[in-house]
């Protein structure tokens, strides 16, 4: 195990240096089972060699920037997350540091909280029940394929996409999650997003632009949507309209792992139900913080830091202060983050 850990670390260092890391098989112990990555010499830049993913799965993620694993989270766990979300929505439980968001279409019209008003909760690292999601062994087993063995849970959300009011505000514009993160390198960050029910185009499934994880971080801004747009729902305006789109139809418990540069969003919820998904962005504890001043992320820093300072009476100066507060170790050791 120690040698596997050392191999993963070496891959990560090579990744930091901007070199393809896949053929770092020199560090792989000769006593371990020969993995497909060794027997089939090819460059893997986005996945690590830890004998969890099949060769086909690795190749798929390398090419497309996402990977769906069917039936990964049990009905029991999903019911428990649902129950806890309902308690939070009714203010029966108030985890410290949690952001509770409402859809822009109901922001002004309704004031009392209920599960029909809350469109998203963010930052549930202090809620033991919801945070169990980030520690589920079957989730971490896959996360480790992207982050290596020392894993931090950085960003947690439960999304309760409301029925669209007709103004299309339930859409989530196409974006890259790295826009919100002041840590790098991107290849050692991964999102796990689990469907809490059947999700398809009718209730607003995820839509991804396969292969876009190979690009760079693009400038984001608020879309000029007529019906308004939710707070912090920044989007990319200049994506290629001809890029192929893949709509991820998922069943309850299915989980998609995706790269933070993958362009994705979600459609309107045309049903009367509230579409639920739970997610966590994980990063290698070896990742490091960057200063986003002077970059396209400066604008998200300003908005998020102001929002958090106002909401919690804190005095954060930088985007990284927000993430240092949210970050929790879920496997291995805390290193840089
Ligand atoms: O669950 C969704 O609708 C999309 C979530 C998403 O992409 C995000 O919050 O970054």
TrEMBL record:
Pfam families: PhyH. Its cofactor is Fe cation; L-ascorbate; ATP. Pathway: Lipid metabolism; fatty acid metabolism. One of its GO terms (molecular function) is L-ascorbic acid binding. One of its GO terms (biological process) is fatty acid alpha-oxidation. GO terms for cellular component: peroxisome. Transmembrane segments: none annotated. It is an enzyme of class 1 (oxidoreductase). It catalyses: hexadecanoyl-CoA + 2-oxoglutarate + O2 = 2-hydroxyhexadecanoyl-CoA + succinate + CO2; phytanoyl-CoA + 2-oxoglutarate + O2 = 2-hydroxyphytanoyl-CoA + succinate + CO2; 3-methylhexadecanoyl-CoA + 2-oxoglutarate + O2 = 2-hydroxy-3-methylhexadecanoyl-CoA + succinate + CO2; hexanoyl-CoA + 2-oxoglutarate + O2 = 2-hydroxyhexanoyl-CoA + succinate + CO2. Gene3D superfamilies: q2cbj1_9rhob like domain. Its EC number is 1.14.11.18. Keywords: Dioxygenase, Iron, Metal-binding, Oxidoreductase, Vitamin C. SUPFAM superfamilies: Clavaminate synthase-like. It comes from the Eukaryota. Belongs to the PhyH family. This is Phytanoyl-CoA dioxygenase, peroxisomal. It comes from Castor canadensis. The gene is PHYH.
């Amino acid at each position: 195990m120690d040698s596997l850990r050392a191999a993963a670390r070496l891959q990560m260092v090579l990744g930091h240096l901007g070199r393809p890391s896949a053929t770092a098989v020199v560090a792989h112990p000769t006593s371990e089972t020969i993995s497909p990555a060794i027997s089939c010499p090819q460059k893997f830049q986005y996945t690590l060699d830890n004998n969890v993913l099949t060769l086909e799965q690795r190749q798929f993620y390398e090419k497309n920037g996402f990977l769906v694993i069917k039936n990964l989270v049990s009905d029991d766990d999903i019911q428990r997350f649902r129950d806890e979300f309902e308690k939070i929505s009714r203010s029966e439980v108030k985890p410290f540091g949690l952001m509770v968001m409402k859809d822009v279409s109901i922001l002004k019209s309704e004031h009392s909280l209920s599960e029909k008003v809350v469109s998203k909760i963010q930052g549930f690292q202090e809620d033991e029940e919801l945070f169990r999601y980030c520690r589920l062994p079957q989730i971490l087993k896959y996360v480790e394929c992207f982050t290596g063995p020392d894993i931090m849970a950085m960003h947690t959300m439960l999304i309760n996409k409301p029925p669209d009011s007709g103004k299309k505000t339930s859409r989530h514009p196409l974006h890259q999650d790295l826009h919100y993160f002041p840590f790098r390198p991107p290849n050692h960050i991964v999102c796990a997003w689990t469907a809490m029910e059947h999700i398809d185009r009718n209730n607003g499934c995820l839509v991804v632009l396969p292969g876009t994880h190979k690009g760079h971080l693009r400038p984001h801004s608020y879309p000029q949507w007529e019906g308004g747009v939710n707070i912090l729902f920044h989007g990319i305006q200049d994506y290629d309209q001809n890029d192929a789109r893949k709509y991820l139809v998922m069943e309850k418990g299915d989980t998609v792992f995706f790269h933070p540069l993958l362009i994705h969003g979600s459609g309107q919820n045309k049903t009367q139900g509230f579409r639920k998904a739970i997610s966590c962005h994980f990063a290698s504890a070896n990742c490091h913080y960057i200063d986003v001043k002077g970059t396209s992320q400066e604008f998200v820093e300003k908005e998020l830091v102001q929002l958090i300072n106002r909401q919690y009476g804190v005095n954060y100066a930088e985007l990284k202060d927000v993430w240092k507060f949210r970050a929790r170790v879920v496997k291995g050791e805390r290193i840089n983050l």
